[in-house]
Amino acid sequence: MPNITRQMLRDYLHDALPEAEMAAVEKALRGSPDLRKLLDGERDEEDRGDHTVGAIWRRERVSCPARDQLGGYLLGAGDPDLLDYVEFHINVIGCPYCQANLDDLRKLQGE
Ligand SMILES: [Zn+2]
To answer: What phi-psi label fits residue 63: left (phi over 0), alpha (psi between -120 and 50 degrees) or beta?
Structure first.
């Protein structure tokens, strides 16, 4: 049996898997009552609504600020609303992509 992760099940529920994986999940589900239970669990969890910021971010795909906006944030320059947004994105949502980008920019500025 291929390794079906919870993330794959979630993507399966959202029709977000590539066709080959979709078929693999379906096949695995047919062969495994345990996996079907897991899928039901995932569905329930989604129905209840996962309201953590991270989940909302993943669901809504809140967009990442552009690199020059991150640069502005480091300097404290720019539209205050935008700075608030970046602050939220970095510190509350904790977007790993933007944190890495910000670290990178800090290094550049330090040189
Ligand atoms: Zn981001």
So the answer is: beta
* Domain assignments of the chain as residue spans, ordered by start: 6-49, 67-110
**Interval between CA 73 and ligand 1 midpoint (Å):** 13
Can you read off the two tokens belonging to residue 89? Answer: 């994105």
Q: What b/e string do you get for 55-76 counting C-beta neighbours within 10 Å, with b at 16 or more?
A: eeeeeeeeebbeeebbbbbeee
Q: Which residues keep their CB under 5 angstroms from ion ligand 1? A: 64, 95, 97-98
Residue 79 Cα to ligand 1 middle (Å): 18
Distance 98 CA to ligand 1 centre (A): 4
**Whole-angstrom Cα distance, residue 8 to residue 40?**
13
Question: Residue 2 pLDDT > 90, yes or no?
Answer: no
**Residue 63 clears pLDDT 70, i.e. is over it:** yes
- Look up the pTM and report it: 0.45
102 Cα to the center of ligand 1, angstroms: 10
